[in-house]
Amino acid sequence: MDHNWVRQLFALWQHTGRPTDLEAAFADFYADPVLVNGLEMSRTDLVARARALNAGFEGLTADILQVVDDGDSLAVAFVMRGRHTGPYAGPLGIVEPTGIEVEIRTIDILTLTDGRISEITMVADELGALAAVGAARLVADG
After folding, report:
1. pLDDT tens across 106-117, in order?
2. pTM here?
3. 103: in domain
4. Is 28 in a helix, a strand, or coil?
5. How far is residue 20's CA from residue 102's CA, in Å, rounded to a whole number?
6. Cα separation, 116 vs 27, whole angstroms
7. What is the CA radius of gyration of the chain?
8. 2-36 confidence digits (pLDDT tens)
9. Tell me, what CATH number does 14's domain have?
């Protein structure tokens, strides 16, 4: 897969169209179901996740830092940025809007089957984003 394919994939996550349109568009990129960090998710679940992400962050962008392609899988390092203007379902629960610009550094490892993403291993710096909006506090040792 080339960088253009990855850009199209990221643009899909920033799309806010009708759910049926999104589900059809997601079918071009994702198998059904997809394993995400070991949990099975349907395409419908992925569309709901994309819509929730866009509802939580205004002006959502993703800057792709690096793509490594070995044929059957891709590793994509990126920084997602947006203004926190809506409820965000993070690992610590719902975080109410703060209006603060946040960025989440992420690495996704995408396993491909028949040209579609069938498995995702994702590691994201959500703690940094939670600290930025005041939902978590980082303390120094000592």
Report:
1. 999 999 999 999
2. 0.85
3. yes
4. coil
5. 29
6. 8
7. 15
8. 678 898 898 888 876 666 688 889 999 999 999 99
9. 3.10.450.50
